[in-house]
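Worked example 3. Consider a protein that binds WQD.
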Amino acid sequence: MQKILVTGGMGYIGSHTVVELIQAGFDPIIIDDLSNSSVEVLDGIEKITGTRPQFFNFNLCNDVLLGNFFQNNTDVRTVVHFAASKAVGESIKRPLLYYKNNLLSLLLLLEQLAAYEDSKILFSSSCTVYGQPDQLPVTEQSAFKQAESPYGSTKQICEGILRDACKANPMLKAISLRYFNPVGAHESIQIGELPQGTPNNLVPLMAQVAAGIQPELKVFGSDYNTRDGSAIRDYIHVVDLAQAHVKAVHRLLGNKQRNNYEFFNIGTGNGISVLELIHEFERVNKLKLNYKIVERRPGDVESIYADTSFAKKELGWQAKLGVEDMVRSTWKWQQSLSSKK
Ligand code: WQD
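Given these inputs, the predicted complex is written out as structure tokens:
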């Protein structure tokens, strides 16, 4: 079976992608420093797939351990690179940590891959690179705006590193997937999001308010120029997102690219407001959420959702799961976490 290195494979999106890679017949190997996950995730992956992937517990910025890994795994030439710091708010408080971790890890990976003629890398990017697009739905040709956070800036810089590395080395093949807002959990409820501390993102916060872990949900702004005044995002089920990675890996391995560096929007194409999502969460899960409308959060964009035609045409991928699956699996996962405590 084709070995695929999955950095950050114990994380939320990483673990769901490891499951889909195993079920697609690949042999994923995980490197993860467990800074935003726990080793129990391996149990969840094994319960779903019957396979316990190899797991190496270290940070990619440790160039000695990374070099040893590649020396001992010379048949690993394809990498799905999730490992990065990803909390927008934290990145504003600790920019140097974000620039060092997110940029150095990619650079050290590319240094290792440079030893091979046939190396491939799939990069975890974000719709954050667009800022507030001038036109919606946003296409892959939309210009990058000034990033609203060091986190978003690291994603823009990493895409530039991949673009230039691929230009300099036609044998290197790379794809960036620009995620919109990943939410939900695997239907087995064996894996899901494990927020460390108080979540920053809307959906895990909604789940914790519903579970009584957080007292109330603050809706950041109802004075946006949108249909109900709250901000609009393109929420995508994490399993749909994981399956997009399998499609992109096949494209890389099948030498099907039009250029050796490509990038795709991975969203549903549907924009949903904060208040609409709250009401859907309440309706589907038959509960009431305690929320209060407060002032806008600095750095938030008003509205963003994806034009998904390029991924549909070139990757042969489109999202299949709807908002009901997203909010139902989120709540079932939260209930399973609460029952484990
Ligand atoms: C969604 C909407 C908030 C919390 C960020 C990153 C992106 C990706 C996902 C990593 C916004 C509103 C939120 C709350 C609220 N990160 N909100 N009350 O900011 O769209 O995207 O996370 O992969 O790269 O930029 O996601 O979930 O924080 O916010 O009203 O307590 O919910 O204002 O409109 P965001 P989010």
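Take a moment to read the result before moving on. The chain has a mean pLDDT of 97. The CA atoms of residues 132 and 301 lie 5 Å apart.
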